[in-house]
Every structure is written in structure tokens, then in C-alpha cells.
């Protein structure tokens, strides 16, 4: 019985691991830190998750899960409704068409591939938010978040790679 339950739990982890990771990281990203002034940019963890898993294991992150992750992030962030959902879905669709370029490449190539994805995601977020609020918002917070996201990718890419190997190895 316990071996069967363990096997079921492992199957669930394999099926929903990236989505669970995304939700946990989004929650951590939205915890109050420091003086809660919002002055410290945090990485766009959902974008990192979508990028990594769309390249390395797209079967574990279908478009419906990406939409749900984006919707969850939208509900927590308080920004324009649907913004993150749209940005993440576009990123995943673009990446699904470019996956062959990045799979089996060095980590540095993967990280370099993340640069234009991050730039376009941040640009699209800034444009949509500016249109939603009817104002030309400052791009500095979006630029800062983009830079922090790019800087955070190597650490989280390594963690996700380790997690992926663990899932393949049956723990």
C-alpha cells in the first residue's frame, strides 16, 4: 500500500512539479520583505519557471497550467487583470516554437536565450500596464525587475535542472 501511495505521489510530483514550484516561488516573491516600500525589485519567478520548463520539459508545463500560473500571479500582484497570464502564455507559445534551438545547448546559451524573452516580456508588461492605467508609466521598475530576473536565472536554472534530474531518477 505505501509503495503504491509513494508511486502515486511521485507521479503527481512529476506531472505538476513545475506548476507547484511556480506557485511556491510566486508566493515567496509576494511575502513582505524589509520595509515593504516596494523599493527592492524581485525577479519575475513565473517567467523563469515558464522559460526553463518550456525549453527542457514542455510536457510538464502545458499552456493551461501556464495560464493558471499567470492568473494566480495576477490575483496576487494587483496589477492589470490578465497581464501576467497573457505575457506568460505568449512566452510559452514563442518558446514552444523555438525549443529546438535551446534544448541540448550549454547553460550559457540557454541563459543568453533568456535575455530577449525577458526583454520582450518586460516591454509587453510595461506597454499593457501603461495602456491599462492610461498613463506613460516609468519604465525603471520594469527594467530593474528585468535585470534582477536575468541575474536570478542561473541560480534557479541550476535548481530546476537538479529537480528535473531527481524526478527522472525516481528519487
From TrEMBL:
<dbReference type="Pfam" id="PF04093">
    <property type="entry name" value="MreD"/>
</dbReference>
<keyword id="KW-1133">Transmembrane helix</keyword>
<feature type="transmembrane region" description="Helical">
    <location>
        <begin position="60"/>
        <end position="77"/>
    </location>
</feature>
<keyword id="KW-1003">Cell membrane</keyword>
<dbReference type="InterPro" id="IPR007227">
    <property type="entry name" value="Cell_shape_determining_MreD"/>
</dbReference>
<feature type="transmembrane region" description="Helical">
    <location>
        <begin position="109"/>
        <end position="133"/>
    </location>
</feature>
<dbReference type="GO" id="GO:0005886">
    <property type="term" value="C:plasma membrane"/>
</dbReference>
<feature type="transmembrane region" description="Helical">
    <location>
        <begin position="12"/>
        <end position="30"/>
    </location>
</feature>
<protein>
    <submittedName>
        <fullName>Uncharacterized protein</fullName>
    </submittedName>
</protein>
<keyword id="KW-0133">Cell shape</keyword>
<comment type="similarity">
    <text>Belongs to the MreD family.</text>
</comment>
<dbReference type="GO" id="GO:0008360">
    <property type="term" value="P:regulation of cell shape"/>
</dbReference>
<keyword id="KW-0472">Membrane</keyword>
<feature type="transmembrane region" description="Helical">
    <location>
        <begin position="139"/>
        <end position="163"/>
    </location>
</feature>
<keyword id="KW-0812">Transmembrane</keyword>
